[in-house]
Design the sequence.
């Protein structure tokens, strides 16, 4: 990248306009703060700065300029989507993409079966194959 030009942190997120996520599962965590831009929200989510959880998404309230960092995304169990004209939802691409890049070492998506439909082996299991 060229000198002096900073990478836009929003590139790591998939945006869905006018959508908010509501947690049904009360153990899921949310933290909010007033911030002027979505870029500031994205930067903080990427770094998990000041958060007691791994940020998987954030919702930005355009009316109140409030950022809502989420420990979950739209694919998480115990979450429902809600149409809301004040909010834009930004989900980390790493957690919502279902494709493997390279050898898949950094894959964080939701696919857990092979192309032929066989259930994947859990990482903490040595059965049926050793690592």
Sequence:
């Amino acid at each position: 990248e060229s000198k002096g030009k900073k990478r836009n942190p929003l590139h790591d997120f998939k945006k869905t306009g006018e959508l908010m996520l509501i947690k049904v599962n009360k153990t899921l965590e949310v933290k909010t703060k007033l911030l002027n831009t979505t870029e500031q929200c994205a930067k903080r989510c990427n770094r998990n700065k000041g958060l007691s959880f791994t940020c998987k998404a954030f919702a930005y309230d355009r009316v109140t300029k409030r950022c809502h960092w989420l420990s979950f995304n739209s694919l998480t169990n115990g979450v429902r989507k809600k149409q809301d004209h004040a909010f834009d939802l930004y989900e980390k691409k790493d957690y919502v993409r279902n494709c493997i890049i390279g050898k898949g070492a950094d894959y964080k998506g939701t696919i857990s079966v092979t192309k032929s439909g066989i259930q994947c082996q859990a990482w903490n299991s040595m059965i049926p194959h050793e690592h």
